[in-house]
Amino acid sequence: MTMEQTYAERLNRYVTAMRNGKPDRIPIRPFVAEFTAKYAGYTCQEVVHDFPKAFAAARKCAADFDWDAVVGNMVYVWTGLTQAIGLRYYGIPGIDVPPNTGFQYREPGEDEAFMKADEYDALIADPTGFLFNVWLPRVSKEVQPIGAPATPRNNLALVKGGMAMMSYFSAFPPQGLALQQESGTVSAIAGIFKAPLDIIGDKLRGYLGLTMDLLTQPEKVLKACEALMPHLLWVALSGADPDKNVPIGFWMHRGCTPFVTMEQFQRIYWPTLKPIIEELWRRGHQVLFYAEGNWTAHLETFAELPEHSIVFHIDRSDPFEAHRVLGHKFCLSGGLPNTLLAYSTPDEVRSYCKKLIDGVAKDGGYIMDASAIIQNDAQIENVKAMTDFTREYGVY
Amino acid sequence: MSHPIQPGVCIPWEEKLKELPPLTGDAELAKRIWEETDALGYLFIWHCLLSF
């Protein structure tokens, strides 16, 4: 079989499963991040700060493990770029944290939030202007606030940051092509999306600030989420797969209970998320719900979405309940606990994979993956066990 | 950037046009190129928020 045929076969297998169909066998699509460094012989610092090494490591894993689909670089942050902009919230391996620790996101304390509690109106009035004029100078050590004198470091940070982003993003299409040509591997996702409420919690008010705002000024939070919606849709579409094969990655953080109450989820999170997913599907784009944490309480709500519009990824959600509630409409992925990959034996990994496949994958519509992104604590023999067992046992 | 603007836009073409002398050439070309490069600035800040 030629590499071109291998790629076509894998793309068909992956897309068939994502449309909740039954392919020839279960696709294997591990979201491998710092694991690639461990396998390829790099430090975390090397893959996060020198992205061509991360790309090379991803290709080596894809080829050696013979996976159906991977992300071109699941160590998604290039810290050379974040350093150029001067972003305060990253802990960079080898600089801020030990070289073999994954990069860290450092959420500021409540009093140092990047957006203040009384700034909702400014965000609502002009989200893009707020980001440039208020948010960026706060998250960057280099960028000066409006009204402050421009400095050489300010000017340089903006030029370097823009050029670095262009350089980084421009490297992804060749990476996708290299994966296709070298190992017949499919690029698993295209584009990025996050829920409006998560954006406010993650990057603007911080989680603690957001929880207070949800109690003291919920209408402002709702209006801010509504103001973010068209922008998040636009960015999601700008990076989506033009062929409409692979889904847009949707990274779900703290929109589930108990991070928010069910009432807050139903009143703010869901009404400002659902229309975007529906619009993306109307335009032919599936969305991968990378549901970090436990979203079991919200499965019935997700079942409201149009058939096939999403792929639901299982982290700590109950896989069997997810299958019961969502399996008739949507493909599922993941569900293999990362703790097993890190601390158990290959036999235990195989045993759990069997339980998972028997419970959720009998009729197709399932993609094998770990629960969360696979970092450098995973044992290579366990990742191999997950791969080999699925390839042997997951044949339809 | 003191007024509400559409997704994909930092400085609307209509605002930029006020700064320019009367256009003698292809106005649509001028508009398109302005908007395409302006969108790069938009992508920069929104990817700072979303991706990094």
Structure explained in plain terms:
With 396 residues, chain A is α/β, with parallel strands linked by helices. Chain A has 19 helices and ten strands. Chain A has a six-stranded parallel sheet, sandwiched between helices. A two-stranded parallel ribbon of chain A has the order 1-4. Chain A has a two-stranded antiparallel sheet with strand order 2-3. In chain A, helix 15 (299-302) links the parallel strand 7 (287-291) and strand 8. In chain A, helix 4 (51-65) packs parallel to helix 9 (172-183). The radius of gyration of chain A is 21 Å and the shape is globular. With 52 residues, chain B is mainly alpha-helical. The interface between A and B is medium-sized, with 34 and 23 residues.
Question: How much strand of chain B?
Answer: under 5%
The end-to-end span of chain B amounts to: 23 Å
Mean pLDDT of chain A: 97
Discrete helix count of chain B: 2
The outline of chain A comes out as globular
Q: Give the overall silhouette of chain B.
A: elongated
SSE run of chain A:
HHHHEHEEHHHHEEHHHEHHEHEHEHHEH
The number of distinct β-strands of chain B equals 0
**Assembly form of the protein:** heterodimer
> N-to-C SSE series of chain B?
HH
In short:
The complex is a heterodimer of chains A (396) and B (52). By secondary structure, chain A is of the alpha/beta class. Chain A is 52% helix and 8% strand.
Spell out the key features of this protein.
heterodimer; A: 396 residues; alpha/beta; 8% strand; B: mainly alpha; elongated
Question: Any chance you could write out the topology, listing elements then pairs?
Answer:
The complex is a heterodimer of chains A (396) and B (52).
Chain A: H1 3-18, H2 34-40, H3 44-49, H4 51-65, E1 69-70, H5 79-85, E2 90-91, E3 104-105, H6 120-125, H7 127-139, H8 152-170, H9 172-183, E4 186-187, E5 192-193, H10 196-204, H11 206-216, H12 218-238, E6 248-252, H13 262-269, H14 274-282, E7 287-291, H15 299-302, E8 310-314, H16 319-326, E9 331-334, H17 338-343, H18 346-360, E10 366-367, H19 380-393
Parallel strand pairs in A: 1-4, 5-6, 6-7, 7-8, 8-9, 9-10
Antiparallel strand pairs in A: 2-3
Helix pairs in contact in A: 1-9, 2-4, 4-9, 5-8, 10-11, 11-12, 18-19
Chain B: H1 13-17, H2 27-50
